[in-house]
From TrEMBL, chain A:
It is found in: Cell membrane. GO terms for biological process: transmembrane transport. Signal peptide: none annotated. It comes from the Bacteria. One of its GO terms (cellular component) is plasma membrane. Keywords: Cell membrane, Membrane, Transmembrane, Transmembrane helix, Transport. The chain crosses the membrane at residues 12-35, 179-200, 207-229, 241-260, 285-308, 346-365. This is ABC transporter permease. It comes from Fuscovulum blasticum DSM 2131.
TrEMBL record, chain B:
Signal peptide: none annotated. It is a multi-pass membrane protein. InterPro entries: MetI-like, MetI-like_sf, UgpAE/MalFG_permease. The keyword Lyase does not apply. PANTHER family: BLL4140 PROTEIN (PTHR43227), DIACETYLCHITOBIOSE UPTAKE SYSTEM PERMEASE PROTEIN DASB (PTHR43227:SF8). It holds the Pfam family BPD_transp_1. This is Alpha-glucoside ABC transporter permease. The chain crosses the membrane at residues 6-29, 50-70, 110-131, 143-163, 191-216, 236-257, 277-299, 329-348, 378-401. One of its GO terms (biological process) is transmembrane transport. Belongs to the binding-protein-dependent transport system permease family. GO terms for cellular component: plasma membrane. The keyword Cell inner membrane does not apply.
Length: 379, 408
């Protein structure tokens, strides 16, 4: 079927261009945030991320000259820097709002009352006056700064170590790991045994149980929030890690059982029957034959469950406490969006810390993920 | 105790406990309860084999019942009770249906339910078909699939930057506004903002009408005998298509007549009605990869000979796609569609993170969360959860029905 397109070069080109457009549409938003996370806060707000590689000319806020005057050769002189904190390159400057770009750096501007002002490219200025400038209104300086492209990893070091929304992202990262690893491993084991029973053991009501699991696949976990919170309070574990591990296990089980059963049913019957004839018990068959053979299905479910628990917000909001030692990355990010919504250098770096692990897992184990998706949906 | 250490302990205890439970319970069954020796060995083996499946199933079943089945009933029970715990019957439901915010959530959810599965499946089908034909298709696929790994909250941050809006006097840092400000009403604006949308909406309109006609045609055909239930479903589908087509017609008119505010940066998330679409874009962006992967596998499974036969009969690529391939993967398309529908019903994170239901973007799941944890009204929140459950139920029944069919 490939040769249909091959016969018509124009159509093949159209396909190539459409795919490029689609891929760009899908990648550009993420890429924009990635670029932004490496820019300084000033740069992010002064120009779009797509201009990160070009030098920006930006109008700076007007600065009124201030400083202590010194008497030098019969004149009164004030020296200082317009932008003491920032490293700016001034490309033009002026002393009136009508002509903000009248002078180049290093030029001297004549002012009223015989005063002169010289501004250098780095913002250093010298104001010279024949009379004392005390009680006088000093001039304002308008300047256009050109800021060269600047990239930094400081955003990341900042968000990882310092507490921004109650706690640091670094701590939230550890909390998220604490939630997701047990919540991935426990359901696999529980589900594997159940899936084996549903796939290879004969007993009355098996079909009914499979239907029950399939039905539970679509039950929205929203329904479970309040009853389970009550239940957790009743048995005395309240809000905390133990509760969220159990909740994630319960919510992940239908998919786990369904995926694993679908896979195990497809394993060759001969192997299992031969083993039974040779006197192996069900437990031995399960541990020595079924588990190793089901590795691809186990891996694909593990990836699903890991991505799901890592990315989850709702379950964490409900079943975890609000203390700093229990906030997860997604919750932290939502808080940041509320309290520091405009600080893109913080938001973008935090977002990338939180999506880095899933992305690594995704790209390294994509094959298993695809296989799991297909086993779960197409059958 | 340090939570990380606690986690390690839980992994050890959990894994050890599971393995220990299964091993010891089997051992107990075979050696103590029904030992396979003595005068009743044969009967004991049979008994042990009858009990064993339940040993394997017990932990999973207990967790499933406790964490998913029981809450359905408990939530229903809670939804019949007021804020103070007194029994109010259907009071919560009637109160909820009179609340404007609930009506808004329901309307928005309906919009989400139509737009997101359709768009994600459509884009997924397009991407699957296109990437299957080129050499670097696998790289393209994996890039389009990538958002699957990104959390809804992370995706919200990503798109918040895209939608960012600033005063017209300063540089825009949001991509969408930067693009928007490029349009000034000239020829390109007409091309991109009038003609292109008109073609898209018009095409969609024709597609919906065509789909509705395909659904209705068998009903009008007197020779075909069908069950009344299927007939009713066809008529209902046709009517829905007609309503959507009418709405699209209104939009088509709007594309040409509305006045666009050129040169002014837009706060995209604050424009009522349309802001929902900007939120939906996030979910479509995430779900398209899922649809693409599954549909691509389905497309590869289409038998070669049907396609070859079509080529020999002189079909062009579009005819092959729409008349040969798509009908053969219809089953998979339906599965993808319903799976995305379920995801849409549960969507909560995106709305919470981006607008928190302000500017008329509320959806059911966030409305429910609002009631449960901000107003602390468990009765109302449970009632909202039951509405979500009611919307999911048709899919649940259909899934179970299919599973039963497969088991036979």
């Amino acid at each position: 079927m490939d040769n249909i397109a091959g016969k018509k070069p124009a159509l093949l080109w159209a396909v190539h261009i459409s795919v490029v457009a689609l891929v760009l549409l899908w990648v550009v938003p993420t890429f924009g945030l990635l670029v932004s996370s490496f820019r300084t806060g000033d740069q992010i707000v002064s120009s779009g991320w797509w201009q990160a590689l070009t030098t920006q000319e930006t109008q700076q806020a007007a600065v009124r000259i201030a400083g202590t005057e010194a008497e030098k050769d019969g004149a009164f002189v004030i020296e200082g820097n317009l932008f003491p904190a920032k490293g700016v390159e001034i490309s033009h400057w002026g002393t009136s709002s009508r002509e903000p770009e009248a002078f180049a750096p290093g030029e001297t501007a004549p002012l009223n009352d015989g005063m002169t002002l010289t501004v250098q490219a780095d913002g250093a200025f010298v104001l010279t006056s024949p009379v004392t400038t005390k009680d006088m209104r000093l001039p304002r300086v308008f300047s256009t700064a050109s800021s060269p492209p600047e990239f930094t990893t400081r955003n990341y070091t900042n968000v990882i170590s310092s507490p921004l929304a109650g706690q640091s992202i670094g701590q939230a990262f550890i909390n998220t790991l604490t939630v997701s690893i047990p919540a991935t491993i426990i359901p696999i084991l529980v589900a594997a045994f159940a899936a084996y029973a549903l796939a290879w053991m004969e007993f009355p009501g098996r079909a009914l149980l499979v239907a029950f699991v399939v039905g539970l696949l679509v039950v929205p976990l929203q329904l479970a929030l309040i009853p389970l919170l009550q239940f957790h309070n009743w048995i005395g574990i309240g809000k905390g890690y133990l509760g969220i591990w159990m909740a994630h296990t319960g919510f992940g089980l239908p998919l786990a059982i369904y995926l694993l059963r679908n896979y195990m049913v497809g394993l060759p019957r001969d192997i299992i029957e031969n083993a039974k004839v040779d006197g192996a018990t069900d437990f031995q068959i399960f541990v020595k034959i079924i588990l190793p053979l089901s590795f691809p299905a186990l891996a694909s479910f593990a990836i699903f469950q890991f991505l799901w628990t890592w990315n989850d917000l709702l379950v964490a909001l409900v079943f975890l406490g609000t203390g700093n030692d229990q906030q997860v990355l997604t919750g932290n990010l939502v808080n940041l969006m509320g309290s520091r919504g405009g600080d893109w250098e913080i938001l973008s770096a935090s977002a990338f810390v939180s999506i880095a692990v899933p992305l690594v897992v995704f790209f390294s184990m994509q094959r298993f993920l695809v296989r799991g998706l297909l086993a779960g949906s197409v059958k | 105790m340090n939570p990380a250490f606690q986690a390690l302990l839980v992994i050890a205890v959990g894994v050890g406990g599971c393995v220990g439970y299964f091993y010891l319970s089997n051992l107990f069954l075979d050696k103590v309860l029904f030992p396979a020796r003595g005068p009743q060995a044969g009967r004991n083996i049979n008994r042990a084999n009858a009990v064993r499946p339940w040993l394997f199933l017990f932990p999973a079943l207990a967790l499933l019942c406790l964490y998913l089945a029981y809450p359905v009933f408990a939530t229903f029970w809670l939804s019949l009770h007021g804020k103070d715990g007194s029994f109010v019957g259907t009071g919560n439901y009637t109160a909820m249906f009179q609340e404007p915010k609930f009506g808004e959530s329901l309307r928005n959810n309906m919009l989400w339910l139509v737009v997101v599965p359709a768009a994600a499946t459509g884009f997924g089908l397009l991407a699957a078909q296109l990437t299957d034909r080129i050499k670097w298709g696998n790289i393209a696929k994996s890039l389009i699939f990538m958002p699957m790994a990104i959390s809804f909250v992370g995706a919200s941050v990503i798109f918040k930057l895209v939608y960012d809006s600033r005063d017209a006097a300063v540089a825009q840092i949001g991509l969408l506004n930067a693009l928007w400000l490029k349009f000034e009403g000239g020829i390109w604006s007409v091309l991109f903002l009038r003609v292109l949308p008109a073609v898209l909406v018009g095409g969609l309109l024709l597609a919906v009408l065509w789909g509705g006609w395909l659904l209705l045609r068998p009903v009008l055909d007197a020779r075909r005998q069908e069950k009344p239930l299927i007939k009713a479903a066809r008529v209902l589908g046709g009517l829905v298509a007609l309503v959507i087509a009418f709405e699209l017609g209104v939009w088509l008119l709007g594309v040409f007549t509305n006045v666009l505010p050129y040169g002014r940066p837009q706060a995209w998330l604050q424009i009522p009605f349309w802001n929902s679409f900007f939120l939906m874009a996030v979910l479509i962006w995430i779900q398209t990869g899922f649809a693409m992967v599954i549909l691509s596998a389905a497309l590869r499974g289409v038998p070669e000979d049907t396609i070859e036969a079509a080529i020999l009969d002189g079909a062009n690529p579009f005819q092959i796609f729409f008349k040969v391939k798509v009908p053969q993967i219809m089953g998979t398309i339906v599965v993808v569609w319903t799976t995305i529908t379920i995801t849409v019903l549960k969507v909560f994170d995106i709305v919470l993170a981006m607008t928190n239901g302000q500017w008329e973007t509320q959806v059911l799941a966030n409305y429910m969360y609002d009631k449960l944890f901000r107003s602390l009204d468990w009765g109302m929140g449970s009632a909202a959860a039951m509405v979500i459950m009611a919307l999911v139920t048709p899919i649940l029944i259909w899934n179970v029905w299919n599973a039963r069919k497969e088991m036979r």
